[in-house]
TrEMBL record:
<dbReference type="InterPro" id="IPR033391">
    <property type="entry name" value="FBPase_N"/>
</dbReference>
<dbReference type="GO" id="GO:0006000">
    <property type="term" value="P:fructose metabolic process"/>
</dbReference>
<dbReference type="GO" id="GO:0006002">
    <property type="term" value="P:fructose 6-phosphate metabolic process"/>
</dbReference>
<dbReference type="Pfam" id="PF18913">
    <property type="entry name" value="FBPase_C"/>
</dbReference>
<keyword id="KW-0963">Cytoplasm</keyword>
<dbReference type="GO" id="GO:0030388">
    <property type="term" value="P:fructose 1,6-bisphosphate metabolic process"/>
</dbReference>
<dbReference type="GO" id="GO:0006094">
    <property type="term" value="P:gluconeogenesis"/>
</dbReference>
<feature type="domain" description="Fructose-1-6-bisphosphatase class I N-terminal">
    <location>
        <begin position="5"/>
        <end position="197"/>
    </location>
</feature>
<dbReference type="InterPro" id="IPR000146">
    <property type="entry name" value="FBPase_class-1"/>
</dbReference>
<keyword id="KW-0378">Hydrolase</keyword>
<dbReference type="GO" id="GO:0000287">
    <property type="term" value="F:magnesium ion binding"/>
</dbReference>
<dbReference type="InterPro" id="IPR028343">
    <property type="entry name" value="FBPtase"/>
</dbReference>
<feature type="domain" description="Fructose-1-6-bisphosphatase class 1 C-terminal">
    <location>
        <begin position="201"/>
        <end position="335"/>
    </location>
</feature>
<dbReference type="Pfam" id="PF00316">
    <property type="entry name" value="FBPase"/>
</dbReference>
<keyword id="KW-0460">Magnesium</keyword>
<feature type="binding site">
    <location>
        <position position="283"/>
    </location>
    <ligand>
        <name>Mg(2+) 2</name>
    </ligand>
</feature>
<dbReference type="GO" id="GO:0005986">
    <property type="term" value="P:sucrose biosynthetic process"/>
</dbReference>
Length: 336
């Protein structure tokens, strides 16, 4: 049986689904960068890549060496190909301008270069999350600096999103807006091979993921819902629930795409000015696009995440995503 590599899948998409050739090229380049990141991640202490840089990113988080290495790999891989008008990353204060010596293209690439990096030193799965937008015409110009407002589009405008997970296997999960495909890196071949044809999130679940140590800071609807989950068979939901929290969004979302579940990082009272911990552009939007394309749902408790009009690049958001029934239940509690 011939194997379908990512390249072949993308070429077939170009033919059958009108996926533009430069979008295909963009995804290929991102996938190549992810292979390189996977290589660095897997070296660990042997490659001298563990530990911190001694610097902080714009959100005041300690940068790990691998956060910076991964960010640089993605920038270098994507800046020269002529398919992008600009890039934005969790690890950079401002949007990245395509250097003047390179041609510019019509797309914007947004990424979290290494998600879950606090786990890197303990050898737990981490990943790269990315999202692709079209650069609005009014911002397309060959000479001028790209205005950051070009990026501030709701998640519904994404033309592609995906993540690579660096776990026991390195996988690439991708949506072009017509379902979700999973590719596994074949290290001997050096290619991502299609292994998961049609990824679907089961509608119901008996598993949830939330950082319980923040319980005392949660808002009432989330407290109520988690109390009901914990009450199990004898509670109002009449079912026992199991809990998992990896603290790598890629790994938690990957589990949900594989066997269902509910993921929550709600807004809490620790930092009242911030509506959550996770970032809308780099984490919530791409993951919500993937989850919806797999038949799941994603809200901030009040509205669909993909409908939120971003106000700033590094905006935070409360996230509730996964199996539809459970997302709908906890979202309804917010509205009561
Ligand atoms: P990042 O490593 O990109 O900063 O993201 C970490 C995120 C996310 O991956 C995870 O779900 C969450 O932070 C875990 O947060 P807690 O440590 O508060 O549980
Ligand atoms: Mn992250
Ligand atoms: Mn990160």
């Amino acid at each position: 049986m011939s194997r379908v590599t990512l390249s072949r899948y993308l070429i077939e998409q170009t033919r059958s689904n009108n996926t533009p050739a430069d979008l295909r090229f963009l995804i290929e380049v991102v996938a190549r960068a992810c292979k390189e990141i996977s290589h660095h991640v897997s070296k660990g202490a042997l490659g001298g890549v563990l530990g911190s840089m001694g610097t902080e990113n714009v959100q005041g988080e300690v940068q790990k060496k691998l956060d910076v290495i991964s960010n640089d790999i993605l920038l270098e891989a994507n800046e020269w190909g002529g398919h992008l008008a600009g890039m934005a990353s969790e690890e950079m204060d401002n949007a990245y301008q395509i250097p003047g010596r390179y041609p510019k293209g019509a797309y914007l690439l947004v990424f979290d270069p290494l998600d879950g990096s606090s786990n890197i030193d303990v050898n737990v799965s981490v990943g790269t999350i990315f999202s692709v937008l079209r650069c609005p015409n009014e911002y397309l110009s060959q000479n001028e600096t790209l205005n950051e407002n070009a990026f501030l589009q709701p998640g519904t405008e994404q033309v592609a999103a995906g993540y690579a997970i660096y776990g026991p296997q390195t996988m690439l999960i991708l949506t072009l807006g017509n379902g979700v495909k999973g590719f596994t890196l074949d290290r001997e071949l050096g290619s991502f091979v299609l292994t998961h044809e049609n990824i679907c999130v089961p509608e119901t679940t008996a598993e949830f993921a939330i950082n319980m140590s923040n319980q005392r800071h949660w808002e009432a609807p989330v407290k109520r819902y988690v109390d009901e989950l914990l009450a199990g068979e004898t509670g109002p939901l009449q079912k026992n629930y199991n809990m998992r929290w990896i603290a790598s969004m890629v790994a938690d979302v990957h589990r949900i795409l594989t066997r269902g579940g509910l993921f929550m990082y709600p807004r809490d009272a620790r930092e009242p000015s911030k509506p959550g911990k996770l970032r809308l552009m780099y984490e919530a939007n791409p993951m919500s696009f993937i989850i919806e394309q797999a038949g799941g749902a994603s809200t901030n408790g009040y509205e669909r995440i993909l409908d939120i009009k971003p106000e700033s690049l590094h905006q935070r958001v409360s996230v509730i995503l996964g199996s539809k029934q459970e997302v709908e239940r906890v979202t309804a509690y917010h509205k009561e």
